[in-house]
Amino acid sequence: MSRKQLDRILLAVVALAAFGLPLVVTSPTYLQILILLFFYAYLTTAWNLVGGFAGVLPLGHSVFVGIGAYTSSILTLQYGVSPWIGMLVGGAIAAVIGVIIGLPTFRMRGAYFCLCTIAFAEGIRVMVENIDTLGPLKINGPRGLLVPLLKDPTFWDYQFMSKLPYYYIILVLLILVLAFTWFISRSKVGYYLAAGGEEPEAAAALGINVANYKLFAMALSCFLTALAGTFYAQLMLYFYPKGLMGLDLSFEIAFIALIGGRGTIAGPVIGALLLRPLNEFTRIYLSDMLPGLHLVIFGLILILVMIYLPKGLTAPLSALYDRLARKITVQGEAK
Amino acid sequence: MSNILEVTNLTKHFGGLTAVSSLDLHIKTGEILALIGPNGAGKSTVFNLVAGVFAPSEGVIKFAGQTIHGQKPWDLARLGLARTFQIVKPFASKTVLYNVMVGAFLRTNSTHKAREIAEDVLATLQLDHTKDMLAGNLTIADRKRLEIAKALATNPKLLLLDEVMAGLRPTEVDDMIGIIRGLRDRGVTVFVIEHIMRAVMALSDRVVVIQFGQKIAEGSPEAVTKDENVIKAYLGGEYDAA
């Protein structure tokens, strides 16, 4: 057995397990936890296009989730447009706003860039909270939007009576975004983003317009992030600015990426696998004692990971897999 | 033979400091030109002006007949002007092959083709044995070679080498001299800044000496090292040239 075959078998097993999981997990509560796990893995993978590959640390991505949710919901509520269409419109708007934010901020480095993305994101959230109607559009300020429950929803309505369709939609979205990231990381764009993120001057001398490539990555990342916003709106059927566009969500995305491994394909999934259940269970069992304790626990884990595994959990795990794979392939050849 | 680079009246002020002052310079296609001078003479500033890092305060820079001053480094790389950095800038967390492929992507969009170009360049620079190592783990001599490999992978017409010999052992210097001669044989015009005089003597067809941002001598390596102004610049005013 060659290494390539082994990789393929492993991927197939993981994918099959993910598709088959609802056969075992039938409780809607646990299904919901899995759905949110995939939702966060998806968001972090989309974030990773800028935050991982392009080597900057944007901390305001929840705004683009919000743009996705608001755009598709307003289009559905006021104009009867299917959320599937609204999702793409939201993605396009998010990409444009991402570029507008990126134009002045990508010139900055390190912490200054982080702070600017936080400022932009919070600014937009506060704006949304204080706007009741924007021209013909009902935004509803801090009260948020309620997507009415339909009696006999069809697929076109992006609304389902059971959790199962949501599970498969987010799973397919996650697989698509992972495949896309894999493809990007092996293409010219991926090489150019990594080079520009690590040594901008050297990259420029090799013919790379670093700022343009970062803007391109930002547009892609924001587009994909907004798609998940529509998904969230259709799953929860209610959202409000503070819950959806606040810094909590932005930080959690960054936490998952940093702990899982920035700039790796598997990092966001591994990070979400670890942190999402932890988040849910600390919230269920500990929130009576101390609300927000899960963020303290996140912080502690982040500190430990940064000290002992600065590249995240993916690096040691893939080294372990390499070693196992070598053993298996060598045994296979000996036979 | 035509001139691949022509610099006329080049001047650069940084605040009140004039780093380069009315400098004229040309490089013929296919030659190796060395730019030398004492520390702080303005050599690296000249490189940065030619490579588009700074815009000149005054003067004209022509590359292959085209006026290029004010253009950005990434546009110049596309035109065929590549450079290395005095303080090497590898993409340290990536493999050597990855580093060189970044350069190779300038002339192709195919990952497969970029890998071929990169492997060819690595073989030319005798770096193929390191191709799967992380660039951050290379020895200083190999890092200097990697700098050249990245630039060479962009398939340049003119290559600016900023002190690629600094910090090398004598045998490594000899290897590097061989490599740079090899580049010229491949049709690349080479413009070097160098402090190691043995390398300058062995390599260059012509030498330009600058001090305080001004040209004080120009000519063959032998003629320049006998020039009174040059000896004064390097060894101080009281030294007797005879």
From TrEMBL, chain A:
The chain crosses the membrane at residues 57-78, 84-103, 166-184, 215-241, 253-278, 290-309. It is a multi-pass membrane protein. It is found in: Cell membrane. GO terms for cellular component: plasma membrane. It comes from the Bacteria. The keyword Transcription does not apply. Its main location: membrane. Pfam families: BPD_transp_2 (PF02653). Keywords: Cell membrane, Membrane, Transmembrane, Transmembrane helix. InterPro entries: ABC_transp_permease (IPR001851), LivM-like (IPR043428). GO terms for molecular function: branched-chain amino acid transmembrane transporter activity. PANTHER family: HIGH-AFFINITY BRANCHED-CHAIN AMINO ACID TRANSPORT PROTEIN BRAE, HIGH-AFFINITY BRANCHED-CHAIN AMINO ACID TRANSPORT SYSTEM PERMEASE. This is ABC-type branched-chain amino acid transport system, permease component. It comes from Solidesulfovibrio magneticus str. Maddingley MBC34.
Automatic annotation (TrEMBL), chain B:
GO terms for cellular component: plasma membrane. One of its GO terms (molecular function) is L-phenylalanine transmembrane transporter activity. Keywords: ATP-binding, Nucleotide-binding, Transport. GO terms for biological process: D-alanine transmembrane transport; L-alanine transport; L-isoleucine import across plasma membrane; L-valine import across plasma membrane. The keyword Transport applies. Residues 5-237 form the ABC transporter domain. SUPFAM superfamilies: P-loop containing nucleoside triphosphate hydrolases (SSF52540). It holds the Pfam family ABC_tran. InterPro entries: AAA+_ATPase (IPR003593), ABC_AA/LPS_Transport (IPR051120), ABC_transporter-like_ATP-bd (IPR003439), BCA_ABC_TP_C (IPR032823), P-loop_NTPase (IPR027417). This is ABC-type branched-chain amino acid transport system, ATPase component. It comes from Solidesulfovibrio magneticus str. Maddingley MBC34.
